[in-house]
């Protein structure tokens, strides 16, 4: 690996991770044994409370795996909790404008009007690091990802992508499908929206990521400039593994 996740994203490396839907440190511990580049705790759509987020981040860090948290809503307390617990970064849902993107970046950074400081957190080494060391380490490590999943965001994509401090744009293709009133993620309006995000990322030098239901689509979107792929989930692995086992046993 060439540096941390933030540096790898900036360098244009292909990053492959998965969503964790089960609020269990054991599930995270097991997934940390794989070759996945990162995990993303889905606190937006799965029942993660603060203690579950804390335990799962602990397990990921123990396994040496970068861990993002998709927060349930873009609020300062959600961002603070994830980062204080030691997450590599956050994925923020429903960023619709440049102003919202700028507010997200401010919430994720230390400084006037930004993230509150505590030296007693896991991220700060439980008081074992100096303030200067923790501030520098946080700036070097913290990954801020804006999820693009609304038509308003597509309309404002250049304003969003031009905000300093964003480490990636992440396409919420399913939400876009629903928002456009489409029946399928392959609807031309949805495909055009995803292409618009990829193009804006290239114009402004911001990495682009996405969830894809079909792994076979990765080469196509990599050609369009996407480099961050959060694919599948622990739930999906269990379902597909069970289905494969039954098929093998019963023919």
TrEMBL record:
GO terms for molecular function: lyase activity. Residues 17-236 form the HpcH/HpaI aldolase/citrate lyase domain. It holds the Pfam family HpcH_HpaI. Keywords: Lyase, Metal-binding. It comes from the Bacteria. Coiled coil: none annotated. Belongs to the HpcH/HpaI aldolase family. This is Aldolase/citrate lyase family protein.
